[in-house]
Amino acid sequence: xxxxxxxxxxxxxxxxxxxxxxxxxxxxxxxxxxxxxxxxxxxxxxxxxxxxxxxxxxxxxxxxxxxxxxxxxxxxxxxxxxxxxxxxxxxxxxxxxxxxxxxxxxxxxxxxxxxxxxxxxxxxxxxxxxxxxxxxxxxxxxxxxxxxxxxxxxxxxxxxxxxxxxxxxxxxxxxxxxxxxxxxxxxxxxxxxxxxxxxxxxxxxxxxxxxxxxxxxxxxxxxxxxxxxxxxxxxxxxxxxxxxxxxxxxxxxxxxxxxxxxxxxxxxxxxxxxxxxxxxxxxxxxxxxxxxxxxxxxxxxxxxxxxxxxxxxxxxxxxxxxxxxxxxxxxxxxxxxxxxxxxxxxxxxxxxxxxxxxxxxxxxxxxxxxxxxxxxxxxxxxxxxxxxxxxxxxxxxxxxxxxxxxxxxxxxxxxxxxxxxxxxxxxxxxxxxxxxxxxxxxxxxxxxxxxxxxxxxxxxxxxxxxxxxxxxxxxxxxxxxxxxxxxxxxxxxxxxxxxxxxxxxxxxxxxxxxxxxxxxxxxxxxxxxxxxxxxxxxxxxxxxxxxxxxxxxxxxxxxxxxxxxxxxxxxxxxxxxxxxxxxxxxxxxxxxxxxxxxxxxxxxxxxxxxxxxxxxxxxxxxxxxxxxxxxxxxxxxxxxxxxxxxxxxxxxxxxxxxxxxxxxxxxxxxxxxxxxxxxxxxxxxxxxxxxxxxxxxxxxxxxxxxxxxxxxxxxxxxxxxxxxxxxxxxxxxxxxxxx
Length: 739
What we know:
Elements: H1 8-12, E1 15-20, E2 27-32, E3 42-48, E4 57-58, E5 60-65, E6 70-75, E7 83-90, E8 93-94, E9 106-108, E10 117-121, H2 126-132, H3 142-153, E11 157-162, H4 170-173, H5 185-200, H6 203-209, E12 214-216, H7 231-234, H8 238-249, H9 258-276, E13 292-296, E14 299-303, H10 324-335, E15 342-346, H11 356-374, H12 382-399, H13 409-425, H14 427-433, H15 438-460, H16 471-478, H17 484-504, H18 507-516, H19 520-548, H20 557-585, H21 587-600, H22 608-621, E16 628-633, E17 639-647, E18 655-662, H23 673-679, E19 684-688, E20 697-707, E21 711-718, E22 721-728, E23 735-738
Parallel strand pairs: 10-11, 11-12, 14-15, 15-16, 16-18
Antiparallel strand pairs: 1-2, 2-6, 3-4, 3-7, 5-6, 7-8, 7-9, 10-21, 13-14, 17-18, 17-20, 19-20, 21-22, 22-23
């Protein structure tokens, strides 16, 4: 037998072998050989590490899956609470892999009595971290190294729970899945597998996973950012209907709508999750979904599949997280739960995080900003920057024009057109993102437009006595003055500022910077000067416009009224400039991404019905408060602890409290500390059935703490309590809470 080929897996692009499905007497090994031809023969053997002279125990094949050539081999008849060394032989070679040695391949069976420690983590996004880290990518795998040390030092760690975003498919297919070709399934499968290999194939990751059996539950990035919360998944747009008609009737070619493309894409990723992740879990409680419940020692683990059915509309048209039949299956499993003193609910998205109002405001404004330019392109593009720059230039020149005979008319009518265009073309978006105030927003817009129209017509009508005047005659009467020199300087400076910030945030420009400045300090110094020049340009532009002021408007009673359209148009022009600037910097896409995260959470207004069911499930699992329940969440790129309170009856003080333990990210970029502070909420935050003041209360929560650093958590049952150790990247020792 040849055991010298340590790079065997890397040569073939294999993933594994990873222990899974641990019990007191059994352990399975999961491995994937990719979408190409599998090896001819795969064997696995193990023996107690304390007695290496004894005979090897052979594993039997328990399961195989064909798409990604997955094999699951199972060892049976093992001894409880025992450490085993194992080997996997592929054809005639022992599978070790680069950077690992034979001693890394160990697993421990569960104890037959007493509890054990569990690792919980989520959000393994190495590519985003390395982009944000510039040249300092040496820390990419820092938390995995610390986790490996913890597993080595703490003998009682026997299980890992991965709470979502084990891979980031956004990096492979882009967030608008533009890299997905529905007509080439083989290429898609290859790209999916390569993404898994990129995230799971490195020595740092494998060194942990070859010894830590894990349960895995997916979240959106395992499919794509915001899966199930995206409008294009749920509705066929008018533009898609037009394209479909043109392609079918004129070109006689089948065209995939965005909605169909998303469905095809999802079907590929569902298969990938089933084979690459769910096959390592206990048996699902219902066919077609991956939720499961499993007794582990004195605790039970309920993991919720919150992605496969997310977004599908219910009978009344509302969105769902879990289907009605899925909820029934979970309820039935919860009723049969016995012989456990605590329950851990794995919910990849959070219940407690921000207040409902903060979520509502952030989600509404951010996505509405994005919708205004998304018809041109899904993500930041020159088209979107140019669109807002064009609107700014038009508005700027109109703002700084003046007419003695028709003062403010051009400004009033232009502003009216801007307002009506935004209101009419976005009336559905206004209703969707501002359900409580949408009607009022549209009413105010129409009222202001009517007043501006009335003012303009009042000035123009005297010139219509002899019929409709020609454009030339109207131009003669208006006799507009544009103050060309000032307008050229002002608009030119503004465009230069927009271009400066666009180019300085261009990905290719940043690539050039990284190649020129190979050390972090020099790169940071260069970027500091770039930022200073940008700020100086903005200050210069502001001083120029302050010095220029508005065109010669005298202070009279009539002109005070005239200032209103000027001021409102000035606000519009400033918004156009700001949008062009933010588009160029890529900030609009970043802010708009908040909406998907907000829509994903249990606390989103659209999920009030699901949250009520979830409350009832938690109370059922608590056995009327006699059993402890813990919520394990990820997703939000910050780690922390929250206390949630549910009312059990109408009696005063009759409440059930549980803790939400959030661990995210283990590898991804953390939430900016300032954003974390703003959105964490202060005091007790109520979650109601709707945004109305008198809406019934579902639950309330208090955020104990959050910290924006990469992290993982170790859970240790101890004397009827739960010892929760948060390992943060910037802290040498863990932050410990006893719950």
